[in-house]
Amino acid sequence: MSNKPPRPQNLASLQSSQQSHSTADAFRELFESLSIEQRSNQDLLASLSFALRSFTNVARFLELVPVVISRLVGVQGSLLVPFHSDGRIWREQIQAIPLDQHEELLRKISSFQQGLTVGFGADPMQLVAMDRLIQRYLVKASIVSTSIIVRGQQRGRLYVFDSESTFSFSDVHRSHLQLVADLTGVAIENDQTLQAIRNHERVDQQLSIGAEIQAQLLPDRCPVIDGIELAARCRPAFQVGGDYYDFMCTRPELIGKSREKGRWALVIGDVMGKGVPAGLLMTMLRGMLRAEVLSGLPPDRILHDLNQLAQVDLEHSHRFITLFYSDFDPRTKRLRYANAAHNPPLLWRAEQRSISRLDAPGLLIGLQFDANYGCGSIELQPGDVLLYYTDGVTEAPGMTGERFNEARLIKILEESCRSGIGAQAILDQLFSRLDHFVGIDHHLEDDASMVLLKVDDGLKLPTVN
Fold first, then answer.
1. Are residues 186 and 234 in the same domain?
2. pLDDT (tens digit, 9 = 90+) per residue, 119-163?
3. Domain span at 246
């Protein structure tokens, strides 16, 4: 073994090798550190994404936002100030970490008067004022902020801050900040959509109850009236509609055959508008009209009194009602009628084999307090058919945009009456042709109702001396 000291060139080579190993170790440690940081950031973002998918309570998600962003960026604190959809600061959901060190700041933001006004979030000058408020409180900290945008609407501000003077916000930090802000915007939008769905479900439930009540108010079957056959149907455009028809015995104390031979009121009406408001007014009208029928007055007086009774309620609602009122006496087969600007019923005369309109002068119910109404009268003959209908039938749009219109209704009614079929069969044909015209996948734009009266074909009228 040689005891000679290493040559100078061998020593330099050894030192170079040691330095190379030291540099490689340093790079390896740096790479491992960066990999750990990257995995940590990925885990943080994954946890926030999981919360976004899993949490149905937006408050739980918003609590996580400051925690995740502060760790992603590596800062001491973070602040989230969300806004309501109308732009006001959502005070209940302001979040910050560390909370114990920033309770005073949260109180200042919650009591920030400008932030309590509608439209605050849409006013850039007001947002700058809030940013300055936060900067004054965190006077020694470096602060970076970004907006939370939902469908072009400002829904909050997200801040990160650190008091270390040496801390520097990189482009990566800013990218992470914006990413978390965007995820927060998605969470807020999801919550808003969920709340809207729940509100719609509650409204749908109330509408279903309203539709059920309204269905009970409309006659569930046509009455038996001596010498005539009746059929009726209402198809609302919405769950609750404004169409109305009714059959009322003017002497409700009668029973059995006496009731069948008594005088009956037949009425059809339409409240202008659709949905719940129209349905409520229709219900009010029904109660008033049923009380008026008991007076035994002729149709023109019934409409006159009804118009005066309903005037106050209709004036406040800014709506009006069309109504055709008639009464029928089975003993004489005479139909008396009055019209408050409703679609005139169509009368098929079996003997003449032609169709005409029944009409009388009169204004809308609720339009003028002292309105007067004309009264008409006609004697029905065997085989005659009378069709009452609302404008939802004739105004129904087809697939080409063309309206069903009165001319088409008259043509179909004439074809059905000529075939000699009964009242229900005629009504079924009318609705079948209407449905075919509108289209299977389309809904009516307005409520559509029809009531059909047919005089028995073999009826013999008594001789009147």
1. no
2. 999 999 999 999 999 999 888 888 999 999 988 899 999 999 988
3. 223-455
